[in-house]
Amino acid sequence: MSAPATVTMADPLWRPSPRARQLWAINAALLWLPVFALQAVGAFVGSWWPAWAQIAVLAITLALALLHVTVVPFWRYRVHRWEISDTAVYTRTGWFTQERRIAPISRVQTVDTERGPIDRMLGLATVTVTTASSAGAVKITALDQDIADRTVAQLTEIAGTNLGDAT
Q: Where is the YdbS-like PH domain (predicted)?
């Protein structure tokens, strides 16, 4: 009796747009704005804290925010990948916790494009591939708009030729 063959899973080939780093940095900065606003209000209203404590908390918050805005987008860019074949959509996402997803083309139900205001400003889009899966949709984030449009067209064409019923 022979041993079962080892299956290795190759990483998806394509990265998001290089502008993804800007998108993720802007989104991270926007997340920190309410924290700084609350600290500013606390500095004026909460005068019961000593000045050194307020400065220490502000310094720690600033260090964490700078780390989040400057390091995390580059880290995410190194991790995020996507690829489409005739049989499946592959993604790898995350920065601290990483996730790999494979969605068979036969399970594709819809393909959507999404562009928020910052995406539009940077010329980016997210392609969402909804499948018959309890794990939810597969998202390919931060693609250049023209690549997103081509990806949607390619997925639509491949899914249209597939004989599966997407269930």
A: 77-151
CB 14 within 8 A of CB 83: yes
Mean pLDDT value of segment 66-77: 96
Q: CA 72 → CA 16, 54, 65, 126, 138, distances in Å?
A: 15, 26, 10, 19, 21
Pair of tokens at residue 145: 């708009």
Copy the structure tokens of residue 165: 């019923």
4, pLDDT greater than 80: no
**Do 164 and 105 meet the contact criterion of CB atoms below 8 Å apart?**
yes
Picking from 125, 128, 130, the residue whose alpha carbon sits closest to that of residue 147 is: 125
Nearest to 16 by CA among 79, 95, 69: 79
- For residues 49-69, one letter each, b for 16 or more C-beta atoms within 10 angstroms of the residue's C-beta and e for the rest, the string is eeeeeeeeeeeeeeeebeebb
